[in-house]
Amino acid sequence: MLVDAIVEAIRLAVTRIPDDVVSAIRDAHAREDNEVARFNLENILKAIEIGKEDSIPVCQDTGTITFFVEAGVESPFLGEVKGWLMEATMRATEEIPLRPNAVDVLTGKNSGDNTGKGVPVIHWELVPGDDIRIAILPKGGGSENCSALAMLTPSEGWEGVRRFVLERVRECGGKPCPPAILGIGVGGGADYSLLLAKKALLRRVGERNPDEGIAKIEEEILEEVNALGIGPMGMGGKTTALDVKIEVAHRHPASFPVGLIVQCWANRRAFVEIKPDGSVEVWQ
Ligand code: SF4
To answer: Which of 44, 79, 236, 255 supports an S-S bond with 231, CB 3.0-4.6 Å?
Structure first.
């Protein structure tokens, strides 16, 4: 059953940190000479190992389940996907289990199953073809609280982007559980820049933007963020961020929107692809 595959993909996402993230944390450990930072990185690696071995979530906050769906317009399952994602979220909450993280904004009542108004979050994109590709991003709340939007003036430009990101990372210190991964969306409008920033987190650590100019800025911001010395869990050290990912869209001539989504070391993700014959592939 296709819902089973989605539940298993959610399980994979919350219990197993992708290899590219793990090796970036190992590299950070290898180049670190601050003892406290080394200790914090060792603990993070231990949590990752336990999650993998015991098939339990790597962090108590299993996040807000967020789906990015690329839906092929000719897929025979187009009308069923939303129902599957809702059911899979409820089942994953009970079976894995996930922490119930969906709270009514007015009453404060927790729905208990990670579903509710607007959650799980589902971003849709219609694409040609008959496959359905679903990216799963369980997004922790502590790091999400450090996310921010800046509506810069065009004259502030990329220098303004640097300043805004560095100020926000400095201001947040250890709150987002660094070493972090920073998703940055530039252009579009206020809403779209934040969406681009969140989607950027699905890229592998070390994978640069295909545009050389943007890739260079990613590397420069990464270096500047790490020069802040905030370090793992905010207790000092060489690695404050494992990577910086920038996605761009054209902007209005009068606007320079910058969305920043901060992701913690628990950079969880999984992908599901559903073929028109009902066969499924799951990967990270
Ligand atoms: S920010 Fe990330 S690592 Fe920290 S508690 Fe939340 S999910 Fe866990």
So the answer is: 236
Ligand 1 centroid to 188 CA: how many Å?
29
Measured from the Cα of 140, ligand 1's closest atom is: 7
Q: Are residues 252 and 152 in the same domain?
A: yes
Dump pLDDT digits (tens) for 201-249.
999 999 999 999 999 999 999 999 999 999 999 999 999 999 999 999 9
Q: Are residues 6 and 123 in the same domain?
A: yes
Residue 49 domain-assigned (yes or no): no
Phi, psi at residue 61, to the nearest 5°?
Answer: -90, 105
Are 222 and 251 contacting, i.e. CB atoms less than 8 angstroms apart?
no
Q: Output the ligand 1 site: residues, CB below 6 A.
A: 59, 61, 63, 140-143, 176-177, 264-266
CA of 117 to the centre of ligand 1 (A): 23
Ligand 1 geometric centre to CA of 68 (Å): 21
* Same domain flag for 121 and 166: no
